[in-house]
Amino acid sequence: MPKSATPSRLAVRKTYKLYVAGKFPRSESGRTYLVDGDNVALASRKDARDAVVAARAAQPKWAGATAYNRGQVLYRTAEMLEARRAEFKSLGVAGAEVDAAVDRWVWYAGWSDKIAQVAGGANPVAGPYFNLSAPEPTGVVGVIAPGSLLGLVSVIAPAVVTGNTVVVVASNPQAAITLGEVLATSDVPGGVVNVLTGQAAEIAPWLASHDDVNALDLSGVGDPELATELERAAAGTLKRVIRPSSGVDYTEDPGTGAMTALLEIKTVWHPKGF
Amino acid sequence: MSLFEYAPAPESRSIVELAPSYGLFIDGEFGEAKDTFKTINPADEQVLAEVALAGPEDVDRAVAAARRAFESWSALPGSERAKYLFRIARILQERSRELAVLESLDNGKPIKESRDVDLPLVAAHFFYYAGWADKLKYAGLGPDPRPLGVAGQVIPWNFPLLMLAWKIAPALATGNTVVLKPAETTPLSALFFADVCRQADLPPGVVNIVTGAGDTGRYLVEHPDVNKVAFTGSTEVGRQIARSVAGTGKKLTLELGGKAANIVFDDAPIDQAVEGIVNGIFFNQGHVCCAGSRLLVQESIASSLLDALKRRMATLRVGDPLDKNTDIGAINSRAQLDRITELSEIGAGEGAERWSPPCELPDRGFWFAPTIFTGVTQAHRIAREEIFGPVLSVLTFRTPAEAVEKANNTPYGLSAGIWSEKGSRILAVADQLRAGVVWANTFNKFDPTSPFGGYKESGYGREGGRHGLEAYLA
Q1: What is the pLDDT, as a whole number, of residue A193?
Q2: Could you tell me the CA-to-CA distances from A1 to A4, A8, B410 in Å, in that order?
Q3: pLDDT at residue A4 is higher than 70
Q4: pLDDT tens, B155-171?
Q5: CA-to-CA distance for B205 and B227, rounded, in angstroms?
Q6: Across residues A30-56, what is the average pLDDT?
């Protein structure tokens, strides 16, 4: 009798596509590129524009949700992130970095119903007026993300906790799309976070010059010439620009700056009188 | 409605002693430049004085002086910097009548506005930021916020001294030094302010004033040794500045144009709303970036509101800026008058109905009668473009949602107005308006404690209040 061999099970591999409007479409261009043996989607200009449409459509409702609700949804995201710890590790992210990313997400989730109290307030004007300043989201943010998972989380979380929606150009496709899966399974409405994988140099100029993008985060842009070109393109519609953060240590306390850079202060006056 | 006859009540201009010519204020001294230009009184087109036109080498000298002064100014204890600013505020108060008359002469704005609005706010702004100078670590901007260095500041002609105060007071309080360029048509009050700095014994180089036109401003904002650029003016120039600053690492704040909606609901107190509409668009001849230049009125009350507005407009007094009864003064320049005239003709040409009260305008100088356009649609250029003059475009709406949508249908987002007696509606509409300042049942109110600045293409950063410090600290 021949010895029966235990057949080893063939793994079901994951296909890494884009994450846009809560779905995982391929690039409309049909292009992929090879990263660590996977064919991942190579996003195009059209994908960027579709993602902006999705982000814009999602923005009013996301900003209009109560801060408490946004905080709960984002806390749920941290739970889902924690649950995929092993998967991120299998993608080569160190366990300590996954932990830091989860903790960072929890930290930002908690800001949802506090940032308005820290960044806004009553102004004692010299007259009989009620006068209150409060922060509001700037709108749709184009994000050129840093390569690490912690960096990615550290640019997405401050943008969305404040009620903005984002189009992220990620340079670590598998980890970024896995983060997209985390978001897709944690009650974050589709379109709030959109993840494009591909070349920043190809996609970012379309975001920088897009009329319906309000702010541009260049944190992950390594090439100073590209950063200058993008900042110049952003001037066409006077986008708020977060400049490249070379040398930023994402393990340090991020402070409130990443949130306040994507907030507009609105000041409302009303007379007082009987 | 008949207009009372008022006897002329001119403020005396003898309180202002004008020199025939003024130089650049650099490193604590007035000095000449190669070229000069003349500044005129827009109310009679007479030359007020000749002013130095700063070239690139003059701007170099000014920036170098500011750089030298930065080291010791930023090292001063905040409490000492504060005392200089308090001194400046006091001197401004003591000289406020002189400066108000000067401002009305050079700008054309009514004396009652320069006297009762501009100058009190100028002094208040210095008082407010003086108090911050030794309290910066409590401003919520980190435990040890640091100044940026040399600030290059370019200001417009509509509120010359007030815009100077908005720029210089927070810059100095936070330990920066400045080179400021006033507008080409209104350089004088900044030069008088230089004298105020000398009276206050402010160290040389902490404040430098370079006069000139657009090129001078460009040299300044593009100067490689400037760390911070602050600009108030048109959105078009703001875009150019944002482009030129790209990649330099300079911190930038921009306060640009606007096309504010002033929304009047059917339950608004009509008489108050009419006063607010008039104040919103005719204050300072409409030369106000946050002017309520689009009136959105609920359809059901449109005709009665417009009747009341026209009656009120017929009582506005247009004329001599130095007359204490004048409501609307002179348009600041020939160029601005041409632009207002052109856009108004386009408005009529595109089919909107134009109306002005019977109004006698002086023979000399630059004047434009208060004007409203009815039957305006959102496609009309007078509903989309900033006119920056006493011209109001009237549109109607039926529901609050339509009002919000029309109000937000602009690339600008500086200010907005809401008139209603219903509190919940005011708050809900205020939440949805994409504008940095929302005046509810009031309009055009300003205060040094209250942050001011725009959404979208009206610029970024805030001036005034605690938020105004952020623009000058790292």
Answers
A1: 98
A2: 8, 21, 83
A3: no
A4: 999 999 999 999 999 99
A5: 16
A6: 97
pTM of the predicted model as reported, rounded to 2 decimal places:
0.96
Q: State both tokens at B187.
A: 């350089």
Pick the closest to residue A184 from A28, A53, A47, A18 (CA basis): A18
The closest of B100, B96, B89 to B197, measured between CA atoms, is: B89
Tens-digit pLDDT profile for residues B322-371: 999 999 999 999 999 999 999 999 999 999 999 999 999 999 999 999 99
Quickly count: other Cβ atoms within 10 Å of residue A242's Cβ: 22
Q: Measured between alpha carbons, how far is A177 from A161 in angstroms, rounded to an integer?
A: 20
Cross-chain Cβ contact B450/A214 below 8 Å: no
Q: What is the mean pLDDT of residues A247-265?
A: 95
Which residues lie below 8 Å from residue B244, measured CB to CB, with a gap of 6+? B218, B221, B222
What residues in B contact A123, CB-CB < 8 Å? 447, 449-451, 465
Which of B141, B229, B446, B449 is most worth mutating to test chain A (most A CB atoms within 10 A of its CB)?
A: B449
| Closest alpha carbon to B184 in B51, B63, B78, B302 | B51
B113 included as an active-site residue: no
Best A125, A229, A238, A274 member to test B by mutation, with max B CBs in 10 Å, is: A238
What confidence score (pLDDT) does residue B1 get? 43
In chain B, CATH 3.40.309.10 sits at: 261-440
Structure tokens, B296? 């959105």
Among the partner-chain residues B124, B457, B470, the one whose CB lies closest to the CB of A126 is: B124
Indicate the CATH number for domain B13-256+456-470: 3.40.605.10
- Number of helices (H), then strands (E), belonging to chain B: the values are 16, 18
pLDDT reading at B4 higher than 70? no
Euclidean distance between CA atoms B471 and B152, whole angstroms = 12
Angstrom distance (rounded) from CA A168 to CA B279: 45
CATH topology of domain B261-440: Aldehyde Dehydrogenase; Chain A, domain 2 (3.40.309)
Q: Of these residues, B11, B113, B184, B255, which one is catalytic?
A: B255
Find the chain B residues whose C-beta atoms sit closer than 8 A to any C-beta of A: 124, 140, 142, 235, 238-240, 242-243, 246-247, 249, 254, 256, 411, 426, 430, 433, 435-442, 445, 447, 449-453, 455-457, 459-460, 462, 465-467, 470
Paired tokens of A34 = 């090879």
Q: Is the pLDDT of residue B2 over 60?
A: no
Please name the CATH architecture into which domain A32-271 falls. Answer: 3-Layer(aba) Sandwich (3.40)
Q: Which of B442, B449, B457 shows the shortest C-beta gap to A238?
A: B457
Predicted-assembly ipTM surpassing the 0.90 threshold: yes
CB-CB under 8 Å, B457 with A126 = no
Q: Which member of B254, B435, B442 has the closest CB to residue A271?
A: B442
DSSP string computed for B20-69: SEE-EEETTEEE--SEEEEEE-TTT--EEEEEEE--HHHHHHHHHHHHHH
Contacts of B430 in chain A (CB under 8 A): 266, 268
Q: Is B263 helix (H, G, I), strand (E, B) or coil?
A: strand
Which residues are CB-neighbours of A114 under 8 A, at least 6 positions away?
none
Among A123, A232, A260, whose Cβ lies nearest the Cβ of B449? A123
CA–CA distances in Å: residue B58 to residues B37, B202, B205, B241, B368? 15, 21, 13, 20, 37
Nearest CA in chain A to B466: A123
Please report where in the chains the tokens 């989860």 appear, as a residue. A102
Residue percentage of chain B with pLDDT more than 90: 98
Which H, E and C letters describe B460-472, residue by residue?
A: ECCECCCHHHHCC
Report how many Cβ contacts below 8 Å link chain A to chain B.
100
The burial class, CB within 10 Å (0-12 / 13-18 / 19+), for B209 is buried
**Chain B residues close to A264, C-beta within 8 Å:** 436, 455
